[in-house]
Give the backbone structure.
Amino acid sequence: MDIMSALTRIVGNDRVSNNPEELFIYSRDSGAQPPRHVDFVIMPTTVDEVRSILLLADEFKIPITPLGGGFTLSALVVPNRGGIVMDLRRMDRIIEVDEINRYALIEAGVSQGSLKSYLEKNHPRLQHSTPEAPPTATVVGNVLIQGHGHISPRYGLNSDMVSGMEAVLPTGEICRIGSCSLGSSWFTRGPLPDLSGLFIGWLGTTGVVTKLSIKLYPKPTYREVIVFKSDDVNLMTDAIFEATYLDMLEDFFIINQEKPDWLNHIFYVLILSGHFKEELELKKTAYKRLFKEFKDGGRVEFVEHLHPALEKRFLDVPPLAALAADFRKGGGFEYTGAILPITKVPEAWRKGMEIFRKYDMMCSYVHQVLMGNSIMFGFNYSFNRADEVEIHKTRKALEESNRLTYDLGGIVWKGEVAAQKLALERMDSNTVDLMRRIKKVMDPRGIMNPGNWDLG
Ligand SMILES: Cc1cc2nc3c(=O)[nH]c(=O)nc-3n(C[C@H](O)[C@H](O)[C@H](O)COP(=O)(O)OP(=O)(O)OC[C@H]3O[C@@H](n4cnc5c(N)ncnc54)[C@H](O)[C@@H]3O)c2cc1C
């Protein structure tokens, strides 16, 4: 069977390639994992095309890797076993925005940037939860990896914001999840058995999500950033607890970097918002008072004069929290995103520091407080992609911070294959078995992004 001709029959000449120059960019990402081989890249524009490609791949047992923006940095969209990369970015229609029922129905390739600017132009009172990822990252890719955005401390993970979904299985069935399975409205995914869990967190190993309904939220008129700093790692758990307990935050992240000197403190960055100026003032006063009185006062200090450039970057949507990341010549950047309970933050901080020291890397921390009960604790490593020694060091540091995450009782977020293996090794065996059975039902011939969540 001539696979290239068969793929061309599905999408035409322009949207499929086996040209080495074009495959090159799909064979790697900007993280620290080694490049891998790709046989074909294809860009469908319709659900029918997605289905035909999947059926062909299923018949000939060709691995398929779904790709959104490709920005996870952990090579989740770089095929482990060759085959076809299905680049979904041409499926980029914003199908509907229902302003009253507050959702946007979009195709798989709609980027964060395009949804944001569409809403700004057409529905300025509404917003979606925007991650700090580059604007060409897709909304669907982010939801499927359980990402978070600038209003997550208030409303939850972006994967909690799904109101409906359409997915194509490798066996060709097109399934709808939520109210859209009963009628034409995509306003909710419950109360029904929540089948979105068959795709969320599975890293493209169960099917291809072609449409998504994502919740929209009110967009307050007034926003302000206030920053507190401290040098006491031991205070972090209580500081996070108290700040989230007050329950008035739009966004909340914590940054620190060893150099330059002024950044070498623990900065608590709080984004506040309100529909009225008075509301914003009240929140500001409440947080200033909270930290003034915190642990008998004076141990977390208000930053009086935040540089205007910094203020702007923090207030941007998404904010530039990764400002604290030590971006180096050579452009490589990766991090272990450790989802941790907040009680573990001081220990993660200290042990993470030992890893930075061991590999002679500059400490740079960016942590996103998710809700009261968890944090995305970021062990950040930047490296020169042209320098093999640095890449090797980064992989070792990632390996150690992944292991540390599990030792602390946390979970590595969007982990590369090795981190997924660590999770499976530690996971309760009945749970692994359940995953295996689900995988078998969803993808009986094992063609979907093989190597990821490798259940044997
Ligand atoms: C500087 C920087 C900052 C970041 N900050 C954040 C942040 O603040 N919050 C955050 O959540 N993330 C962040 N990220 C991580 C990541 O870039 C984002 O989560 C991004 O939104 C992922 O979307 P993507 O389109 O790039 O997904 P991809 O990398 O393309 O895909 C992710 C996974 O989903 C699968 N997949 C993609 N589309 C489909 C589909 N339609 N059907 C089935 N499977 C699919 C892929 O196979 C892959 O396994 C950041 C990354 C960088 C580089």
Remarks:
- The domain at 325-415 is CATH 3.40.462.10 (Vanillyl-alcohol Oxidase; Chain A, domain 3).
- The chain has a mean pLDDT of 94.
- The CA atoms of residues 205 and 448 lie 4 Å apart.
- The radius of gyration is 22 Å.
